[in-house]
Amino acid sequence: MSVALFPSVEWFDRVRQVFNTDDRFRGGGGGMCNALVGLKVGPKSYLVTFEGQECSDATEATERDLAAADFYLEMAPQEWREMIENIHSNGHADLHHTINTLDLDREGGISHSLHGDQYREDLFFRYNQTIQYFFDASARVDTQFK
């Protein structure tokens, strides 16, 4: 399989395929997840849908579309790259590169919303291990960066 460019729908689809077909991503805090997650990578935005134990869809979005997301994760392209390269090197994120640690270590965090609905925003904390497993699945995707 060829190398996938991050960020792109193709990259997210390849990660989805690994995530959805590997039972290792279902235990230890991962599992049922029902959330529409936005991802903001510099000027690019994406919506990733989690339903039950699968990631069912990934689409490119506008920044305005992020209002539909329960929450969105935002980092500069270099920060996303550092996290993904760390995952690729270790097979999973080390303790300094998990989305939870990245959120806690930054003033204002990386998890945001455009709607102000605290219940939906809280889904980040409820499901962050499953979302971490999703990104950990990227260790098995050959990735190139813009």
Strand tally is 7
Named at the architecture level, the CATH assignment is: 2-Layer Sandwich
Compute the number of helices: 5
The global form is globular
Plain-language structure description:
The protein contains five helices and seven strands. The protein has about 150 residues and is of the alpha/beta class. The chain has one domain: Nonspecific Lipid-transfer Protein, Chain A. A five-stranded mixed sheet has the order 4-3-2-5-6. The mean pLDDT is about 95.
Brief descriptors of the model:
single chain, 146 residues, alpha/beta, Nonspecific Lipid-transfer Protein, Chain A, two-stranded parallel ribbon, 25% strand
Strand and helix layout:
Layout: E1 4-6, H1 9-21, E2 35-41, E3 44-51, E4 54-61, E5 71-75, H2 77-90, H3 99-105, E6 111-112, H4 118-121, H5 123-136, E7 143-145
Parallel strand pairs: 1-7, 2-5
Antiparallel strand pairs: 2-3, 3-4, 5-6
Helix pairs in contact: 1-5
